[in-house]
Structures are given as structure tokens and as C-alpha cells.
Amino acid sequence: MTDNQKKHISKFLSLILRHQPEIIQLQLDDNGWADVDELISKSAKHGNAFSFEQLEEVVFTNDKQRFAFNEDASKIRANQGHSIHVELDLPVQEPPEFLYHGTVARYLDAIRKEGLKKMNRQHLHLSRDKQTAEKVGSRRGIPVILNICSGQMHRDGHAFYLSANGVWLTDHVPAQYINF
């Protein structure tokens, strides 16, 4: 499978498993899991045909590990990034003392006033390292990396979760916890 094919399938999976499963009349359970056979079948009927082997390759080779299979690979879900409500059943965890968020300069005034907000996502995404945050921020232009005082936030009662692919999640980062 070419890189372009993998990218196409990955983008399609992101759309379906994170945002709009109804496009192909796919039913996700409360935890965001979809039946793999149903996903493959309904995707093909909507012009996005791929085999189980191709799906497996996308899941296991995706650099961001966006998707996961259950233990017997009969179900699949997105690890995070949902704009639809799913219960990921992630336990609250103590984050590292500092986490990072990549953005661009045009958003800094709003962030200084309101902090970081999850916007239309279920959670706000934070990175353990500056390189990942820089990669995320660069998707919208020249990245600005924000240093988040996540340890202090946690001690002050804010909940943090760690997704299966190592992305730290929270609901909001108030401005006082952000080093600009």
C-alpha cells in the first residue's frame, strides 16, 4: 500500500471514528468502538474500500497511533480527538510537571484571556515533549509552543487523562497555568 493510500484511509477513519460516523451509517458504542467488519463493509459501499489487512497496516503504522483495535481486533476506535461524545474510560492520572501545546501567534491574545479551550473536541490535547507540540502547531503556520504547568494544575484539582497513544488530555487550561 502506498503512503497516499494509507493517508487517505487514515483521514477517512478520523472523520468516521472521531466526528461523523453517520456518514456511512456506522454505529459506535458508548466507548467509541465500531465493529471492524461493519466499518469495512459500510466504507466500501460509500466509495472508500479497504481490506482488513490495509486497515491493520494503517492502525499499526500510523505515526500518531490515532486508532486502536480491541484485543481480538473485532472492534476499532480512535484513541482521542472526538468531536462526538464517547466515553473513553480513561482513569485520571498525574501528569508530568510540564506539558506542551502547539499553536500559532494569531490565537495568543485569546489564549491569554481565556486560557486553552477544547473548542469542538471532547478534550484539549497536550504533548509530553516540545517536538510533538511544534509538529502540531506547525499545521496552522509558524508554531508557538506554550509551556503548561500541568503538575500545579493537577495539584489544584484539574483532571488529566492519558490516551492509549500517549496524548495528555484535559478539559481546559486556565491562563494562569500557561507560560507564554
UniProtKB/TrEMBL annotation:
Keywords: NAD, Transferase. Belongs to the KptA/TPT1 family. This is Probable RNA 2'-phosphotransferase. It holds the Pfam family PTS_2-RNA. The keyword Metal-binding does not apply. It comes from the Bacteria. Its EC number is 2.7.1.-. Signal peptide: none annotated. GO terms for biological process: tRNA splicing, via endonucleolytic cleavage and ligation. GO terms for molecular function: NAD+ poly-ADP-ribosyltransferase activity; tRNA 2'-phosphotransferase activity. Removes the 2'-phosphate from RNA via an intermediate in which the phosphate is ADP-ribosylated by NAD followed by a presumed transesterification to release the RNA and generate ADP-ribose 1''-2''-cyclic phosphate (APPR>P). May function as an ADP-ribosylase. Gene3D superfamilies: 3.20.170.30, RNA 2'-phosphotransferase, Tpt1/KptA family, N-terminal domain (1.10.10.970).
